[in-house]
Write a structure and sequence with these properties.
The protein is α/β, with parallel strands linked by helices and 294 residues long. It is built from 11 helices and 6 strands. A hairpin with a 4-residue loop joins strand 5 (147-151) and strand 6 (156-158). The longest helix is centred in the C-terminal third of the chain and has 22 residues, at 226-247.
Length: 294
């Protein structure tokens, strides 16, 4: 049966840029290290017999700006992205398409929203949806063993049961968790005093922020500093709910592809070899082992 792999391309691009892999200048002199790194990473995925890729799509933020920036000025954006990396946002999408892989280029939404949409839309049509990113936001999509999260760098796969066992709360409480603790990667501040342990304990007991009793003496669990946490939550619950909204992924992005459109039939030799020539990586022409039939 089919397995759908959906990849956080923005994470892969940043990881490749900051990796110790050798620098690469494309003809014309522009820095193409990250782009080449993403292609190399995807080829390794396609060649991995344990992953057994049958259907595949890669999502990118292009630009790093979404509707959430309209809601909150402090939300993550392109600010601070090195210009040589920002200049590769279009190039890496072209590179991935040269492999014969579907690209979701997100503008109004984020790449994470595309991954969440795919997880919801296709979960019952495939044996498993494998969401390839270490981003903690995506844990909210976990569903039994049907939707799992894969951290390729750590060689770790997390399903819903493993998440519950390690974190102490359900995947659907992930936005609440980030609403309380914040998420520095996304620019979400959270509430002062709430750490991972206290938030996990409360959400394990109550599930969602609005279900946590206002007065800590009513709490059935007792995190450290409960009185102060209770006072903070009473005064700033609306803030936490707003931050939760920012952390909640949209799973209704209007992606146009059907599941069959995501089927990986092999690398198109002509398109890939032309890309290799354009980037000056002619030695990569021999790398693919899964070629599309002529």
């Amino acid at each position: 049966m089919a397995r759908l792999h959906v990849v956080d391309g923005t994470y892969e691009l940043f990881r490749a840029h900051y990796s110790p892999r050798p620098d690469h200048r494309a003809p014309g002199g522009w820095d193409a290290k990250a782009t080449v790194g993403v292609v190399s990473s995807l080829l390794a995925l396609l060649h991995d017999s344990t992953e057994d890729v049958t259907h595949l799509a890669v999502a990118f933020d292009n630009p790093i700006h979404s509707f959430r920036n309209d809601l909150f000025d402090g939300y993550k954006s392109d600010d601070g992205v090195p210009p040589e990396l920002r200049a590769q946002f279009d190039a890496v999408e072209d590179a991935v398409r040269s492999l014969g892989v579907v690209v979701w280029s997100m503008q109004r939404y984020e790449a994470d929203d595309a991954l969440a949409t795919a997880a919801r839309r296709y979960a019952d049509a495939v044996e498993q949806v494998r969401v390839l990113t270490p981003d903690k936001d995506l844990a909210q999509c976990l569903r039994g063993q049907r939707v799992v999260q894969v951290d390729r760098r750590q060689k770790k796969t997390t399903d819903e049961a493993a998440f519950r066992a390690s974190r102490g709360f359900a995947p659907e409480s992930v936005p609440d968790f980030l609403g309380l603790t914040g998420d520095t990667a996304d620019g979400i501040p959270g509430l002062p005093g709430f750490g991972e342990k206290s938030a996990a304990l409360l959400l394990g007991a109550y599930g969602h922020i609005e279900h946590i009793p206002e007065h800590p003496y009513l709490w059935t669990v007792k995190p450290r500093g409960a009185l102060q946490l209770g006072a903070t939550l009473a005064a700033r619950r609306d803030e936490a709910l707003f931050y939760r909204k920012l952390a909640t992924l949209v799973d209704t992005v209007p992606l146009v592809e059907s599941l069959d459109d995501l089927r990986f039939d092999g690398v198109s030799r002509g398109a890939f070899e032309a890309w290799c020539d354009r980037l000056g990586v002619t030695t990569m022409k021999a790398t693919p082992r899964r070629w599309r039939p002529a």
